[in-house]
Amino acid sequence: MTTDNQNTAPVEDENSIIAERRAKLAAIRQKGVAFPNDFRPQQKAADLQAQYGDMGREELEALAVQVSIAGRMMLKREAGKKAAFATLQDASGQKADGRIQLYVTSDKTGEAEMEAFRHYDLGDILGIEGTLFKTKTDELTVKVTTLRLLTKSLRPLPDKFHGLSNQEMKYRQRYVDLIMSEETRRTFKARTAAMSSIRRFMSEHGFMEVETPMLHTIPGGAAAKPFITHHNALDMEMFLRIAPELYLKRLVVGGFERVFEVNRNFRNEGVSPRHNPEFTMMEFYAAYVDYRWLMDFTEAVIRQAAIDAHGTACLTYQGRELDLGKPFHRMTIVEAINKFAPHYSSEQLQDAAFLRSELKKFGVSPLANAGLGALQLALFEETAEAQLWEPTYIVDYPVEVSPLARASDTIPGITERFELFITGREIANGFSELNDAEDQAARFQAQVAAKDAGDEEAMYFDADYIRALEYGLPPTGGCGIGIDRLMMLITDSPNIRDVILFPHLRRED
Known about the structure:
- The protein is of the alpha+beta class.
- It has helices at residues 14-31, 45-52, 57-63, 106-109, 111-118, 167-172, 174-180, 182-204, 245-253, 291-310, 333-340, 346-349, 352-361, 372-383, 437-452, 463-471, 483-491, and strands at 66-78, 83-89, 99-105, 125-134, 140-151, 208-209, 215-216, 228-231, 236-240, 258-266, 278-287, 314-317, 320-323, 329-332, 392-395, 417-422, 425-432, 476-482.
- β16 and β17 form a beta hairpin.
- It starts with 13 loop residues before the first helix and ends in an 18-residue tail after the last helix.
- The relative contact order is 0.09.
């Protein structure tokens, strides 16, 4: 009978394999401690590979390097009655050097330990002590002297050549995906490196990291539909955070002139390759700067994160080159339409009735009170947005769709706002902040009217935020960077769920 210890696919169904492994665990329990916690590994496989992998056999043998490592057994093959080879995998390394070969023999471990090892399964977690040597094929190997079973794996691993082939299963059982896929491990190690880079960059530029509430009594800081919950003790409706913006700007009012937060946001909207109901953003606010400074700074943050996580600002995304090292482009909404949809005339782009009829061809039905700027933005989203492959700032957003942004001093109806697009998707949104309390109150009132007219994403009136502005918010700029979408670019991932460890999925049947 073929067993799951071998390098071929198991012929038993999973339930029988689990039953067999549970029987093995029961036998281990009878002999003593089944899950010991007194083994302390001293080395990692990647470090051993780096230090000794290129060393000659004789030189290595002369050193008699003693090692103590732990990890999951991923491969196993018999080499006669009294010897076997195995592969141990630990958390080290970006590539295959997170693994090291084991050579187990009865003359080194003893007959009893060798016999026990024959019954160990792929996926078991082992503690190993031994001496390094090189095989005839020059593979760095541990000649095992002490072998301990630390954790018994009760479920069989997927076929080693294919891993988890079902994409939804990879998301649902991320723990198995991480065991089997070096690519997945690299993705999330790169994400961690990028996040460390961002935090370091912000700190080096005088920003203080803060935490603000996730439960809000009034959802604000973005145009989005919130998740609604209920606080039992206070008997009140509450909302999961859609953005931390209004709280962060309260802190600037309080005198913290540069703040940032790596925040989890929740929006009760659709799921797509670029949308997840729970997602990560980094928002930052700086006093005495404007949106032009923000664009330069945001560009620098993103470029450094790519370099620190990927090794270079020159990326390849889905087969196309993407250079984050070059200066990012800048254009207005109308300029972008003219570039990517040049068949529209200047007169047509200034004709609200024409824009409404044109948007209907795309299946878009603007609100009845949508002004010219909002209609132009809607046409941009349908004709130009997806074609913005190179990093591009779109600027000069209309006031009516930018309720928190400072109005331009020179162009009526326009705000000092930008959105950053890369590979056809929004990556960041920022603006010079509106710090006029009376203007902000009027903007909130307009949002309330829009909500009453049927706009589910319109903002609420936040009286406390108005009160904070009345104490005085210095001239300020603020920006939010979509971390998950940025990580898609850095790791060449086509789906946002590829860069979220545990993405939202339907309930398992």
